Amino acid sequence: MFVRSIVADAFGTNCYVVAPAEGEECVVVDPGIGVERRVQDLLAEHRLRPAAVLLTHGHLDHVYAVTPVCAGTTAVSPYIHADDRYRLRDPLSSLGPELVLALEQQFGRRATWTEPEDVVELADAQDLEIAGLRIGVVHAPGHTEGSVLFTTAGVPDGIPAQELDRTVISGDVLFAGSIGRTDLPGGDGAAMRRSLRDVVLPLADSSLVLPGHGPATTMARERATNPHLAGLSPRG
């Protein structure tokens, strides 16, 4: 499986491009601030054709480039969980004027937003057949109401399949050694604990985890070392 990551210009957000192989259709996951040109360059270099843009949740740092990326050379639709659909109307409004001003000062231009067209709403336990990939959607609220994990069989080229056999794109639910914050609007600490217990803990140890920020990790490593998973037991 072809997987490449692009780190956004702000907040260190990971954008992923995933395809069965070079020269085929692909999905773009979480296009954050300032990634659109690099996404287009990567697609051209590897002869990839975007089929969809998948969003793990609706925070600005994960969706800021969704509209230009969707409208690239071939128009495609963005996919987001129904509970976070409202965030695509104007994610700038959730930042507050001081943070918007800081972004504008950092990049030297006015922050703008155009709501994407043809948004597809996702549901829990949905299976997507896109770009030759079968991608599972797992609702994991807590960081936001509509946060999801995307799961697929297989791992990126170059990773020994004897050790890892699944890939989980975890957004801001699970990081290497940490989890997403729950003190932002729409966050819920109790919901996050339930998601960690009922969604994250049951993931197989053979899962490669590609988080929304920071380095890749594995479920086996997080189960053994992540302090936020310590003391939790899967329900049932």
Automatic annotation (TrEMBL):
Residues 12-213 form the Metallo-beta-lactamase domain. Its cofactor is Zn(2+). InterPro entries: MBL_Glyoxalase_II, Metallo-B-lactamas, RibonucZ/Hydroxyglut_hydro. It comes from Serinicoccus chungangensis. It comes from the Bacteria. Keywords: Hydrolase, Metal-binding, Zinc. Pfam families: Lactamase_B. One of its GO terms (molecular function) is hydrolase activity. SUPFAM superfamilies: Metallo-hydrolase/oxidoreductase. This is Hydrolase. Residues 215-236 are annotated as: Disordered.
